[in-house]
Protein backbone atom coordinates (compact mmCIF):
# COMPACT_ATOMS: atom_id res chain seq x y z
CA UNK A 1 0.00 0.00 0.00
CA UNK A 2 1.23 3.47 -0.76
CA UNK A 3 2.52 5.12 2.35
CA UNK A 4 -0.56 6.69 3.91
CA UNK A 5 1.49 8.65 6.38
CA UNK A 6 3.78 10.29 3.85
CA UNK A 7 1.35 10.67 0.98
CA UNK A 8 -2.27 11.67 0.51
CA UNK A 9 -3.80 11.33 -2.93
CA UNK A 10 -6.28 14.11 -3.61
CA UNK A 11 -6.93 15.47 -7.06
CA UNK A 12 -9.84 16.54 -9.22
CA UNK A 13 -12.13 19.41 -10.04
CA UNK A 14 -14.30 20.30 -7.07
CA UNK A 15 -17.93 21.17 -7.58
CA UNK A 16 -18.73 24.84 -7.09
CA UNK A 17 -21.94 23.98 -5.29
CA UNK A 18 -21.78 24.39 -1.53
CA UNK A 19 -23.70 22.55 1.12
CA UNK A 20 -26.88 24.40 0.12
CA UNK A 21 -29.10 22.01 -1.78
CA UNK A 22 -26.78 19.06 -1.20
CA UNK A 23 -28.70 17.73 1.75
CA UNK A 24 -31.97 18.03 3.62
CA UNK A 25 -31.87 18.70 7.33
CA UNK A 26 -34.59 18.81 9.94
CA UNK A 27 -33.76 21.13 12.81
CA UNK A 28 -33.81 19.68 16.33
CA UNK A 29 -31.79 22.29 18.19
CA UNK A 30 -30.76 21.65 21.81
CA UNK A 31 -29.56 24.15 24.40
CA UNK A 32 -26.01 23.20 23.49
CA UNK A 33 -26.71 24.01 19.83
CA UNK A 34 -25.54 20.54 18.80
CA UNK A 35 -25.85 19.37 15.25
CA UNK A 36 -29.11 17.56 14.65
CA UNK A 37 -29.21 13.79 14.84
CA UNK A 38 -31.92 13.85 12.14
CA UNK A 39 -29.49 15.17 9.51
CA UNK A 40 -30.24 13.43 6.21
CA UNK A 41 -28.28 13.53 2.98
CA UNK A 42 -30.15 13.30 -0.26
CA UNK A 43 -29.16 10.05 -2.00
CA UNK A 44 -26.97 10.26 -5.07
CA UNK A 45 -28.66 9.43 -8.34
CA UNK A 46 -27.16 6.18 -9.61
CA UNK A 47 -27.74 4.01 -12.64
CA UNK A 48 -25.83 0.77 -13.00
CA UNK A 49 -25.64 -1.81 -15.76
CA UNK A 50 -23.24 -4.38 -17.21
CA UNK A 51 -21.94 -4.69 -20.76
CA UNK A 52 -21.95 -8.05 -22.52
CA UNK A 53 -18.21 -8.34 -21.91
CA UNK A 54 -18.70 -8.06 -18.16
CA UNK A 55 -17.68 -4.43 -17.62
CA UNK A 56 -19.72 -3.00 -14.75
CA UNK A 57 -20.78 0.60 -15.39
CA UNK A 58 -22.25 3.11 -12.92
CA UNK A 59 -23.54 6.55 -13.90
CA UNK A 60 -23.91 9.41 -11.41
CA UNK A 61 -25.41 12.48 -13.04
CA UNK A 62 -24.83 15.77 -11.20
CA UNK A 63 -25.10 19.08 -13.04
CA UNK A 64 -23.98 21.28 -10.13
CA UNK A 65 -20.70 22.09 -11.92
CA UNK A 66 -19.61 21.75 -15.58
CA UNK A 67 -17.15 18.95 -14.86
CA UNK A 68 -17.16 15.20 -15.29
CA UNK A 69 -14.95 12.51 -13.76
CA UNK A 70 -14.13 9.06 -15.11
CA UNK A 71 -12.82 6.34 -12.79
CA UNK A 72 -11.76 2.86 -13.85
CA UNK A 73 -11.06 0.40 -11.02
CA UNK A 74 -9.42 -2.96 -11.71
CA UNK A 75 -9.85 -5.80 -9.23
CA UNK A 76 -6.13 -6.37 -8.86
CA UNK A 77 -3.74 -5.22 -6.15
CA UNK A 78 -0.68 -6.57 -4.41
CA UNK A 79 -2.80 -9.25 -2.74
CA UNK A 80 -3.19 -10.91 -6.16
CA UNK A 81 0.56 -11.41 -6.57
CA UNK A 82 2.36 -14.68 -5.93
CA UNK A 83 5.71 -15.25 -4.31
CA UNK A 84 8.54 -14.48 -6.68
CA UNK A 85 6.40 -12.13 -8.74
CA UNK A 86 5.68 -9.24 -6.39
CA UNK A 87 5.29 -5.64 -7.49
CA UNK A 88 3.37 -6.42 -10.69
CA UNK A 89 0.21 -4.51 -9.71
CA UNK A 90 2.20 -1.37 -8.99
CA UNK A 91 4.40 -1.90 -12.05
CA UNK A 92 1.25 -1.86 -14.16
CA UNK A 93 0.17 1.42 -12.68
CA UNK A 94 3.27 2.78 -14.46
CA UNK A 95 2.93 0.61 -17.57
CA UNK A 96 -0.58 1.88 -18.25
CA UNK A 97 0.82 5.30 -19.15
CA UNK A 98 3.33 3.95 -21.69
CA UNK A 99 1.06 4.03 -24.71
CA UNK A 100 -1.46 1.89 -26.52
CA UNK A 101 -2.63 1.33 -30.08
CA UNK A 102 -3.83 4.90 -30.68
CA UNK A 103 -2.10 6.78 -27.86
CA UNK A 104 1.66 7.19 -27.88
CA UNK A 105 3.88 7.14 -24.81
CA UNK A 106 3.16 10.14 -22.52
CA UNK A 107 0.28 11.32 -24.75
CA UNK A 108 -2.32 10.31 -22.15
CA UNK A 109 -0.99 13.07 -19.86
CA UNK A 110 -0.85 15.55 -22.74
CA UNK A 111 -4.41 14.90 -23.94
CA UNK A 112 -5.86 15.38 -20.46
CA UNK A 113 -3.74 18.41 -19.61
CA UNK A 114 -4.47 20.13 -22.92
CA UNK A 115 -8.18 19.59 -22.31
CA UNK A 116 -7.95 21.35 -18.94
CA UNK A 117 -8.22 18.23 -16.82
CA UNK A 118 -6.27 16.25 -14.23
CA UNK A 119 -5.51 12.54 -14.00
CA UNK A 120 -3.62 9.90 -12.06
CA UNK A 121 -3.50 6.26 -11.02
CA UNK A 122 -2.84 4.51 -7.71
CA UNK A 123 -2.21 1.00 -6.42
CA UNK A 124 -2.86 -0.59 -3.06
CA UNK A 125 -3.37 -4.07 -1.68
CA UNK A 126 -6.95 -4.29 -2.96
CA UNK A 127 -7.11 -2.66 -6.40
CA UNK A 128 -5.50 -0.49 -9.05
CA UNK A 129 -7.35 2.61 -10.23
CA UNK A 130 -7.07 5.23 -12.97
CA UNK A 131 -9.06 8.44 -13.14
CA UNK A 132 -9.57 11.70 -14.98
CA UNK A 133 -11.40 14.89 -13.97
CA UNK A 134 -12.33 16.90 -17.06
CA UNK A 135 -14.50 19.73 -18.34
CA UNK A 136 -17.93 18.24 -19.03
CA UNK A 137 -17.59 18.42 -22.82
CA UNK A 138 -14.46 16.24 -22.68
CA UNK A 139 -16.18 13.02 -21.53
CA UNK A 140 -15.54 11.32 -24.92
CA UNK A 141 -11.83 11.97 -24.49
CA UNK A 142 -11.69 10.39 -21.06
CA UNK A 143 -13.58 7.28 -22.17
CA UNK A 144 -11.51 6.89 -25.32
CA UNK A 145 -8.23 7.12 -23.42
CA UNK A 146 -9.26 4.56 -20.81
CA UNK A 147 -10.69 2.13 -23.34
CA UNK A 148 -7.67 2.28 -25.63
CA UNK A 149 -5.26 1.16 -22.94
CA UNK A 150 -7.68 -1.46 -21.60
CA UNK A 151 -7.89 -2.88 -25.12
CA UNK A 152 -4.35 -2.51 -26.44
CA UNK A 153 -1.71 -1.56 -23.90
CA UNK A 154 1.80 -1.52 -25.39
CA UNK A 155 3.49 -4.29 -23.37
CA UNK A 156 6.97 -4.30 -24.89
CA UNK A 157 10.46 -5.11 -23.68
CA UNK A 158 11.38 -1.44 -23.94
CA UNK A 159 8.41 -0.28 -21.86
CA UNK A 160 8.94 -3.02 -19.31
CA UNK A 161 12.59 -2.11 -18.90
CA UNK A 162 12.11 1.62 -18.49
CA UNK A 163 9.14 1.30 -16.12
CA UNK A 164 10.83 -1.41 -14.08
CA UNK A 165 13.73 1.02 -13.68
CA UNK A 166 11.30 3.80 -12.73
CA UNK A 167 9.64 1.63 -10.06
CA UNK A 168 12.99 0.52 -8.67
CA UNK A 169 14.10 4.14 -8.44
CA UNK A 170 10.84 4.98 -6.67
CA UNK A 171 11.54 2.17 -4.24
CA UNK A 172 15.08 3.42 -3.61
CA UNK A 173 13.84 6.98 -3.05
CA UNK A 174 11.24 5.75 -0.60
CA UNK A 175 13.72 3.66 1.34
CA UNK A 176 16.40 6.36 1.38
CA UNK A 177 14.53 8.67 3.72
CA UNK A 178 13.94 8.53 7.46
CA UNK A 179 11.33 5.89 8.39
CA UNK A 180 10.94 5.03 4.69
CA UNK A 181 11.06 1.27 5.32
CA UNK A 182 8.75 1.17 8.31
CA UNK A 183 5.73 -0.35 6.62
CA UNK A 184 7.72 -2.95 4.72
CA UNK A 185 8.94 -4.08 8.14
CA UNK A 186 5.55 -3.81 9.83
CA UNK A 187 3.19 -5.70 7.51
CA UNK A 188 4.92 -9.10 7.84
CA UNK A 189 4.63 -8.69 11.61
CA UNK A 190 0.86 -8.22 11.47
CA UNK A 191 -0.10 -10.57 8.65
CA UNK A 192 0.98 -14.19 8.16
CA UNK A 193 -0.62 -14.78 4.75
CA UNK A 194 1.80 -13.79 1.97
CA UNK A 195 -1.06 -12.19 0.03
CA UNK A 196 -1.44 -9.68 2.86
CA UNK A 197 2.08 -9.30 4.21
CA UNK A 198 4.29 -8.32 1.27
CA UNK A 199 4.79 -4.76 0.11
CA UNK A 200 2.84 -3.17 -2.73
CA UNK A 201 5.95 -1.92 -4.49
CA UNK A 202 7.50 -5.40 -4.48
CA UNK A 203 11.09 -6.57 -4.26
CA UNK A 204 14.01 -5.56 -6.47
CA UNK A 205 14.75 -9.20 -7.26
CA UNK A 206 11.17 -9.95 -8.34
CA UNK A 207 11.05 -6.87 -10.55
CA UNK A 208 14.38 -7.85 -12.14
CA UNK A 209 13.06 -11.35 -12.83
CA UNK A 210 9.89 -10.14 -14.58
CA UNK A 211 9.69 -11.08 -18.26
CA UNK A 212 7.56 -9.63 -21.04
CA UNK A 213 5.48 -12.81 -21.05
CA UNK A 214 4.90 -12.50 -17.27
CA UNK A 215 3.67 -8.97 -17.77
CA UNK A 216 1.55 -9.81 -20.82
CA UNK A 217 -0.16 -12.63 -18.93
CA UNK A 218 -0.77 -10.35 -15.94
CA UNK A 219 -2.36 -7.75 -18.20
CA UNK A 220 -4.54 -10.25 -20.08
CA UNK A 221 -5.94 -11.80 -16.92
CA UNK A 222 -6.35 -8.77 -14.66
CA UNK A 223 -6.97 -5.86 -17.03
CA UNK A 224 -10.01 -7.37 -18.66
CA UNK A 225 -13.41 -5.62 -18.78
CA UNK A 226 -14.99 -8.37 -16.68
CA UNK A 227 -12.46 -7.58 -13.93
CA UNK A 228 -13.14 -3.84 -13.90
CA UNK A 229 -15.61 -1.14 -12.91
CA UNK A 230 -16.22 2.09 -14.85
CA UNK A 231 -17.86 5.06 -13.12
CA UNK A 232 -18.87 8.38 -14.68
CA UNK A 233 -19.83 11.18 -12.27
CA UNK A 234 -20.69 14.78 -13.03
CA UNK A 235 -22.41 16.79 -15.75
CA UNK A 236 -23.35 14.56 -18.70
CA UNK A 237 -26.35 13.21 -20.56
CA UNK A 238 -26.91 9.55 -19.55
CA UNK A 239 -28.05 8.36 -22.99
CA UNK A 240 -25.05 9.96 -24.65
CA UNK A 241 -22.73 8.49 -22.01
CA UNK A 242 -24.16 5.00 -22.57
CA UNK A 243 -23.56 5.27 -26.30
CA UNK A 244 -19.99 6.37 -25.70
CA UNK A 245 -19.36 3.54 -23.25
CA UNK A 246 -20.72 1.02 -25.72
CA UNK A 247 -18.70 2.52 -28.57
CA UNK A 248 -15.38 2.53 -26.77
CA UNK A 249 -15.63 -0.42 -24.37
CA UNK A 250 -18.27 -2.72 -25.82
CA UNK A 251 -16.00 -4.68 -28.18
CA UNK A 252 -13.12 -5.27 -25.75
CA UNK A 253 -13.09 -9.06 -25.26
CA UNK A 254 -13.70 -10.55 -21.83
CA UNK A 255 -11.18 -12.98 -20.33
CA UNK A 256 -11.31 -15.97 -17.98
CA UNK A 257 -11.73 -15.01 -14.36
CA UNK A 258 -8.52 -14.49 -12.37
CA UNK A 259 -7.52 -17.30 -9.98
CA UNK A 260 -9.46 -17.54 -6.72
CA UNK A 261 -7.80 -15.67 -3.88
CA UNK A 262 -7.33 -16.68 -0.24
CA UNK A 263 -6.61 -13.78 2.12
CA UNK A 264 -7.66 -15.53 5.33
CA UNK A 265 -5.57 -14.99 8.45
CA UNK A 266 -5.17 -16.69 11.82
CA UNK A 267 -6.29 -14.61 14.79
CA UNK A 268 -2.73 -14.11 16.06
CA UNK A 269 -0.33 -11.52 14.67
CA UNK A 270 2.73 -12.96 12.97
CA UNK A 271 5.27 -11.44 15.40
CA UNK A 272 4.89 -9.38 18.56
CA UNK A 273 8.18 -7.50 18.57
CA UNK A 274 10.95 -6.39 16.26
CA UNK A 275 13.73 -3.88 16.54
CA UNK A 276 14.57 -2.28 13.20
CA UNK A 277 17.72 -0.25 12.73
CA UNK A 278 16.92 2.64 10.41
CA UNK A 279 20.22 4.12 9.27
CA UNK A 280 18.54 7.37 8.24
CA UNK A 281 16.35 7.88 11.31
CA UNK A 282 17.55 10.92 13.31
CA UNK A 283 16.01 9.57 16.52
CA UNK A 284 13.92 6.58 17.72
CA UNK A 285 10.27 6.00 16.83
CA UNK A 286 7.81 3.14 17.11
CA UNK A 287 4.66 1.67 15.60
CA UNK A 288 1.96 -0.25 17.44
CA UNK A 289 -0.19 -2.51 15.27
CA UNK A 290 -3.19 -4.79 15.68
CA UNK A 291 -5.00 -7.23 13.41
CA UNK A 292 -8.71 -6.37 13.13
CA UNK A 293 -11.76 -7.56 11.14
CA UNK A 294 -12.34 -6.72 7.49
CA UNK A 295 -13.83 -3.45 6.28
CA UNK A 296 -17.54 -2.68 6.61
CA UNK A 297 -18.13 -5.12 9.47
CA UNK A 298 -19.72 -3.75 12.63
CA UNK A 299 -16.54 -4.32 14.61
CA UNK A 300 -14.34 -2.69 11.98
CA UNK A 301 -16.60 0.37 11.98
CA UNK A 302 -16.41 0.55 15.76
CA UNK A 303 -12.61 0.40 15.68
CA UNK A 304 -12.35 2.95 12.89
CA UNK A 305 -14.45 5.39 14.91
CA UNK A 306 -12.51 4.62 18.07
CA UNK A 307 -9.32 5.49 16.21
CA UNK A 308 -10.67 8.93 15.39
CA UNK A 309 -11.38 9.60 19.05
CA UNK A 310 -8.17 8.12 20.46
CA UNK A 311 -5.60 9.30 17.96
CA UNK A 312 -7.20 10.85 14.90
CA UNK A 313 -6.34 14.51 14.52
CA UNK A 314 -5.42 17.41 16.75
CA UNK A 315 -8.48 17.14 18.98
CA UNK A 316 -7.94 13.43 19.72
CA UNK A 317 -7.08 12.16 23.17
CA UNK A 318 -3.51 11.17 22.40
CA UNK A 319 -2.68 14.33 20.46
CA UNK A 320 -3.90 16.44 23.33
CA UNK A 321 -1.90 14.44 25.87
CA UNK A 322 1.30 13.59 24.01
CA UNK A 323 1.77 16.32 21.40
CA UNK A 324 0.07 19.34 22.91
CA UNK A 325 0.07 18.37 26.60
CA UNK A 326 3.40 17.05 27.82
CA UNK A 327 5.00 17.70 24.40
CA UNK A 328 6.74 14.32 24.42
CA UNK A 329 5.86 13.44 20.81
CA UNK A 330 6.76 15.29 17.62
CA UNK A 331 4.31 13.44 15.38
CA UNK A 332 1.49 11.01 16.04
CA UNK A 333 -0.40 9.36 13.20
CA UNK A 334 -2.93 6.56 13.27
CA UNK A 335 -5.19 4.91 10.71
CA UNK A 336 -6.99 1.71 9.88
CA UNK A 337 -5.39 -0.37 7.12
CA UNK A 338 -8.68 -1.02 5.35
CA UNK A 339 -8.91 -4.31 3.43
CA UNK A 340 -11.53 -6.71 2.14
CA UNK A 341 -9.98 -9.37 4.34
CA UNK A 342 -8.39 -9.04 7.78
CA UNK A 343 -7.34 -5.42 8.27
CA UNK A 344 -4.99 -3.49 10.54
CA UNK A 345 -5.07 -0.71 13.14
CA UNK A 346 -1.84 1.30 13.41
CA UNK A 347 -0.41 4.02 15.66
CA UNK A 348 2.90 5.57 14.58
CA UNK A 349 4.73 7.86 17.02
CA UNK A 350 7.91 9.92 16.62
CA UNK A 351 8.88 11.01 20.15
CA UNK A 352 11.01 14.04 20.89
CA UNK A 353 14.70 13.23 21.38
CA UNK A 354 15.47 12.05 24.89
CA UNK A 355 11.90 11.13 25.81
CA UNK A 356 11.11 7.76 27.39
CA UNK A 357 9.41 5.65 24.69
CA UNK A 358 8.07 3.13 27.20
CA UNK A 359 6.19 5.89 29.07
CA UNK A 360 4.71 7.15 25.80
CA UNK A 361 3.52 3.64 24.93
CA UNK A 362 2.08 3.36 28.42
CA UNK A 363 -0.01 6.50 27.84
CA UNK A 364 -1.27 5.04 24.55
CA UNK A 365 -2.22 1.72 26.13
CA UNK A 366 -3.90 3.47 29.06
CA UNK A 367 -6.13 5.39 26.66
CA UNK A 368 -6.99 2.17 24.87
CA UNK A 369 -7.82 0.53 28.22
CA UNK A 370 -9.99 3.49 29.19
CA UNK A 371 -11.88 3.28 25.90
CA UNK A 372 -12.27 -0.48 26.37
CA UNK A 373 -13.62 0.04 29.89
CA UNK A 374 -15.66 3.23 29.69
CA UNK A 375 -16.19 3.83 25.99
CA UNK A 376 -16.39 7.30 24.43
CA UNK A 377 -18.07 10.19 26.19
CA UNK A 378 -21.26 11.82 24.94
CA UNK A 379 -19.25 14.89 23.96
CA UNK A 380 -16.81 12.76 21.96
CA UNK A 381 -19.66 11.02 20.17
CA UNK A 382 -21.25 14.33 19.23
CA UNK A 383 -17.94 15.67 17.91
CA UNK A 384 -17.40 12.41 16.02
CA UNK A 385 -20.83 12.65 14.39
CA UNK A 386 -20.16 16.25 13.39
CA UNK A 387 -16.89 15.19 11.77
CA UNK A 388 -18.58 12.37 9.87
CA UNK A 389 -21.29 14.69 8.59
CA UNK A 390 -18.79 17.34 7.55
CA UNK A 391 -16.48 14.86 5.80
CA UNK A 392 -19.36 13.29 3.89
CA UNK A 393 -20.80 16.59 2.71
CA UNK A 394 -17.38 17.77 1.56
CA UNK A 395 -16.67 14.57 -0.35
CA UNK A 396 -20.03 14.83 -2.12
CA UNK A 397 -18.97 18.17 -3.63
CA UNK A 398 -16.25 16.59 -5.80
CA UNK A 399 -17.24 14.58 -8.86
CA UNK A 400 -13.94 12.71 -8.64
CA UNK A 401 -14.40 11.82 -4.97
CA UNK A 402 -17.90 10.57 -5.75
CA UNK A 403 -16.67 8.53 -8.71
CA UNK A 404 -13.96 6.89 -6.63
CA UNK A 405 -16.25 6.02 -3.72
CA UNK A 406 -18.89 4.61 -6.05
CA UNK A 407 -16.27 2.55 -7.88
CA UNK A 408 -14.93 1.16 -4.62
CA UNK A 409 -18.33 0.05 -3.36
CA UNK A 410 -19.11 -1.50 -6.73
CA UNK A 411 -15.81 -3.36 -6.92
CA UNK A 412 -15.54 -4.45 -3.29
CA UNK A 413 -19.19 -5.00 -2.39
CA UNK A 414 -21.04 -5.32 -5.69
CA UNK A 415 -23.35 -2.50 -4.61
CA UNK A 416 -22.73 1.15 -5.58
CA UNK A 417 -25.79 2.28 -3.59
CA UNK A 418 -23.84 1.73 -0.37
CA UNK A 419 -22.50 5.26 -0.87
CA UNK A 420 -26.00 6.43 0.06
CA UNK A 421 -26.11 4.47 3.32
CA UNK A 422 -22.49 4.64 4.54
CA UNK A 423 -23.07 7.72 6.68
CA UNK A 424 -26.16 6.31 8.39
CA UNK A 425 -24.30 3.07 9.03
CA UNK A 426 -21.53 4.89 10.86
CA UNK A 427 -23.89 7.19 12.77
CA UNK A 428 -25.70 4.13 14.12
CA UNK A 429 -22.58 2.77 15.81
CA UNK A 430 -23.14 3.08 19.56
CA UNK A 431 -20.66 3.91 22.33
CA UNK A 432 -21.13 0.36 23.64
CA UNK A 433 -20.17 -1.11 20.25
CA UNK A 434 -17.05 1.05 20.13
CA UNK A 435 -16.11 0.05 23.68
CA UNK A 436 -16.63 -3.67 23.01
CA UNK A 437 -14.68 -3.62 19.75
CA UNK A 438 -11.73 -1.86 21.39
CA UNK A 439 -11.77 -4.28 24.30
CA UNK A 440 -11.80 -7.31 22.00
CA UNK A 441 -9.23 -6.26 19.41
CA UNK A 442 -7.01 -3.49 20.85
CA UNK A 443 -6.96 -4.08 24.60
CA UNK A 444 -4.99 -7.25 24.13
CA UNK A 445 -1.43 -8.56 23.97
CA UNK A 446 -2.13 -9.84 20.44
CA UNK A 447 -0.44 -6.80 18.97
CA UNK A 448 2.77 -5.67 17.31
CA UNK A 449 5.50 -3.34 18.48
CA UNK A 450 8.05 -2.23 15.90
CA UNK A 451 10.87 -0.26 17.52
CA UNK A 452 12.73 1.94 15.03
CA UNK A 453 16.22 2.92 16.21
CA UNK A 454 18.94 5.04 14.59
CA UNK A 455 22.10 3.39 13.30
CA UNK A 456 24.20 1.92 16.09
CA UNK A 457 21.57 2.56 18.76
CA UNK A 458 19.85 -0.84 18.76
CA UNK A 459 19.78 -3.24 21.68
CA UNK A 460 20.15 -6.18 19.33
CA UNK A 461 17.85 -8.37 21.38
CA UNK A 462 14.24 -9.38 20.89
CA UNK A 463 11.78 -9.16 23.72
CA UNK A 464 8.13 -9.73 24.46
CA UNK A 465 5.89 -6.72 24.91
CA UNK A 466 4.13 -6.49 28.27
CA UNK A 467 0.45 -5.66 28.61
CA UNK A 468 1.30 -2.08 29.66
CA UNK A 469 2.95 -1.47 26.29
CA UNK A 470 6.52 -1.45 27.64
Give a description of the structure.
The chain has 470 residues and is α+β, with helices and mostly antiparallel strands. It folds into two domains: 23-249, Cytochrome Bc1 Complex, Chain A, domain 1 (2-Layer Sandwich); 273-454, 2-Layer Sandwich (Cytochrome Bc1 Complex, Chain A, domain 1), CATH 3.30.830.10. The protein contains 16 helices and 13 strands. A six-stranded mixed sheet has the order 3-4-8-5-7-6, sandwiched between helices. A five-stranded mixed sheet has the order 9-13-10-12-11, with helices on both faces. β6 (118-123) and β7 (128-135) form a beta hairpin. The protein is globular, with a radius of gyration of 23 Å. Residues 1-33 and 461-467 have low confidence and may be disordered.
Enumerate the spans where pLDDT stays under 50 for 5 or more consecutive residues: 1-33, 461-467
Domain tally? 2
User: Taking Cα atoms only, what radius of gyration do you get, to the nearest Å?
Assistant: 23 Å
Q: Which outline best applies?
A: globular
Provide the CATH superfamily of the largest domain: Metalloenzyme, LuxS/M16 peptidase-like
Give me the side-by-side strand order of the main sheet: 3-4-8-5-7-6
- What CATH calls the topology of the largest domain is Cytochrome Bc1 Complex, Chain A, domain 1
Strand content bin: 15-25%
In whole angstroms, the N-to-C terminal distance is 28 Å
Main sheet properties? 6 strands, mixed
Mean pLDDT, rounded to whole units? 90
Query: Order of SSEs, N→C?
Result: EEEEEHHEEHHHHHHEHEEHHEEHHHHHE
Total beta-strand segments: 13
Classification by helices and strands: alpha+beta
Percent helix:
25-40%
Q: Assign the CATH architecture of the largest domain.
A: 2-Layer Sandwich
The helix tally amounts to 16
CATH class of the largest domain: Alpha Beta
Amino acid sequence: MKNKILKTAASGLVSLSLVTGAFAQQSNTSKDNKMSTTFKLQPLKLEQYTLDNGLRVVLNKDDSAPVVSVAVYYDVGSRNEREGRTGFAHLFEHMMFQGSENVKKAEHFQYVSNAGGTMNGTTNTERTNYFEALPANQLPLGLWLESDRMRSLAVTEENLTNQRNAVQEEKRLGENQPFGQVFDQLMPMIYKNFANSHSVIGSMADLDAATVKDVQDFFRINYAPNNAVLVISGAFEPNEAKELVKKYFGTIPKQPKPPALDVSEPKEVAANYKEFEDKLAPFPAFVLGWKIPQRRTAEYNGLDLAGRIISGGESSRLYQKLVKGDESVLQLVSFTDERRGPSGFLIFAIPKPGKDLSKIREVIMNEIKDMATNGPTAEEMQKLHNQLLNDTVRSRQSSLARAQSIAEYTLYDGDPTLINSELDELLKVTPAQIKDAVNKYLNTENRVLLDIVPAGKGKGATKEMKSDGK
